[in-house]
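Supplementary material to the annual report.
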Amino acid sequence: MPMYQVKPVSPADITVDLPTCMYKLPNVHAQGASLGEHALQNGEVDPTVKALEERQDEILRKLYELKATVDGLAKTVTTPDADLDASTLAHTLTHTPADAVLRGTADLDDLLGKDLGALRDIVINANPAQPPLSLLVLHALLCQRFQVLSSVHVHSSVSTVPAPLLSCLGPRHTHSYARHRFQLGFTLIWKDVSKLQMKFSTQNMCPIEGEGNVARFLYRLLGAEPRDPVSATLMDGWVDTALFQLAEGGSKERAAVLRALNAALGRSPWLLGQEFSLADIVSACCVLQTGQTSSAPANVQRWLKSCQNLGYFSCVDPLLQ
Amino acid sequence: MTKENVQGGGEEEQQAQSKKALKKQQKEAEKAAKKAEKQAKLASEQQETEEDDFAKDRYGICPMVQSQQKLDRALVRVQDLTLEKAEQQIWVRARIHTSRAKGKQCFLVLRHQQFTVQALLAVGDRASKQMVKFAANITKESIIDVEAVVKKVEQKIESCSQQDVELHVERIFVISQSEARLPLQLEDAVRPEGEGDEEGRATVNQDTRLDNRVIDLRTTTSQAIFRLQSGVCQLFRDTLINKGFVEIQTPKIISAASEGGANVFTVSYFKTSAYLAQSPQLYKQMCICADFDKVFCVGPVFRAEDSNTHRHLTEFVGLDIEMAFSYHYHEVIDSITDTMVQIFKGLRDRFQTEIQTVNKQYPSEPFKFLEPTLRLEYKEGLAMLRAAGVEMGDEEDLSTPNEKLLGRLVKEKYDTDFYVLDKYPLAVRPFYTMPDPNNPKYSNSYDMFMRGEEILSGAQRIHDAQLLTERAMHHNIDLEKIKAYIDSFRYGAPPHAGGGIGLERVTMLYLGLHNVRQTSMFPRDPKRLTP
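Predicted assembly:
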């Protein structure tokens, strides 16, 4: 019996308006079919296999890198009197601070999620009684990397804020009227909070609390965090030591931290060795904040000077007086 | 015989009657005697009291004050009754808030405005039994003059605003008596929401309140609300005058609907008809064209919108700002937001008692804001809404629920109840809105929000007659009707922007109330024209 033709019910090229709040998955059926055909017809290598191979190569490469760094570390450990002229090294480093810090490759899309056409605004609530100096330094670093729209607000829970705190993020950007021109927003709110707090995406992320944790978050945006776990752990250690024992600790604890700093800085120009890092930023800010610059041991003094020579710390100076 | 008979029968009847009558009479006599006795007793008692009442001239009902005499007597206000005045003898004029007699004592709570104090009368060498009885019988809400000694109390009086002292009454006179039946009880009217339901106590519904607004306005909550509202107005004026603004008065009877809208009231105007102004915008803009640079006005505005919502009134007080700027309309946004912040700060610092009073009945979180005010762009707002799962188009206007949701999202992230949303799509704004220079889809317009509700809608206005004509034609507006408006820009006009807020809405949202009728003294809505 002959059959009659029917017009397609829906056009083939229909575009479906997909919601953006869900993630996409590849079409299971289409993929399988096409792959099977390909393999049969051309005998080509399956792309997934290819991806696997690439991944393996990448892992191997990382492993080699790791081995190299561990070898380097072993060298410095086994030869404690390595002939390192720290001061000259520091000196050469001060000439290339940008290289030192901006070596990382950070992509804001990767780190903060896809851009939805709106300014990605980082909101930091800080108590004016304890200005977070390290975050201001990180802000200066972020400004070098990205187009940052910085703004300072005073929350109604605080009645007055000293003038230097209002201008701590530098002068207002001349293009601040056009928010869409910026890659990143940095909004500092002076507020009556017991613990420093950072909010970014209230939907997908809980607030980050504590200056150290926020500092780590911001440092990650710079893409400069150490790759090897040893250095990363060291860095984390120094950040916590500085904030909990130097900034908040008693006089005995402070003295102990200063001695530890002195010892570490006797071995290398920066706390993590040859590279300036978050450990230096936070520790230096804490030393500056506790007002022990003049009584600090020699190595610490020299290190502070090198830090200040980098230029990122200039925003902190007005707040220290 | 027959006569006798008749007589006899009559006698019998009479006898029968008289028997009944006698009984009746007897009873009546008894009654009368009892009555007489009672009266005599009462009279004698009265006599007795008149004789015995040593405090006779210490209480009574004053003749109506017709300014017969000018007493040199200072009345102390209830709010000034503090520990400093302890042991002093003073005169107070106040209303009876509550009275409670208990044997030989009578406790009164006296109220003046939002302040209350406890007063005590006790039978003793100053007050007689009759005086206490008299005081206990004064109707609630009557106005009285009281002479009393201020005494410190050991335990704080929780139920009164003056908690540290009470008054020991020596004289009490009624100045103006209230009727005994009140249409609503004040203590019911200030009962916190929800509490009434739980304990089976009465609360007063909105319409009863509004029908008897005079009494409702006496409640501590209403007193505080309208004092704070006066503060908003005052702060608005002070701030703008300090910024170099000029206050102007604009006509309220106008010949044509200024915004071309249909929601205007028509009034008969001699042989023709006129409209009630729905916004002073045209006149504000004309003042700018007349080189007043920065102007504001405070006055009634009328909207013939038949919407019965919690935030719409047909007549409300508009606080309007218009300002010429140098190069960018953000100068105007900064000016307006700073004015708002100054108002919020002033209220926070000067009206804390009023805020607390209102919070007792209508608890809400304190109003939070940032200085300088947070400014977000419409696109960012959309992105935040979309991230929260709301689906809406780029050029779609915010619906009320979305406005509220966005308010919540912004508050979550920035912890502020006040923010500006800038750069609205051109399509959703009136024809006189200046388009964005870089993107024809957007415009130089902004809304301001308090607790997620829009309070101000403003924009840079087109100050060029030609562009204005184009935009009006694009919106299919009859050019004849807005000729006067367009003509005002023909002779050179400075670039300018502005906006207007509703006083009632700002007060409502600042205090976190839920109905704009609570912050309008005599509200007008589609269903209410009185009082």
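The interface with chain B takes residues 19-21, 116-119, 121, 123, 125, 151, 153-157, 177, 179-180, 187, 189, 191, 199, 201-204 of chain A (CB under 8 Å).
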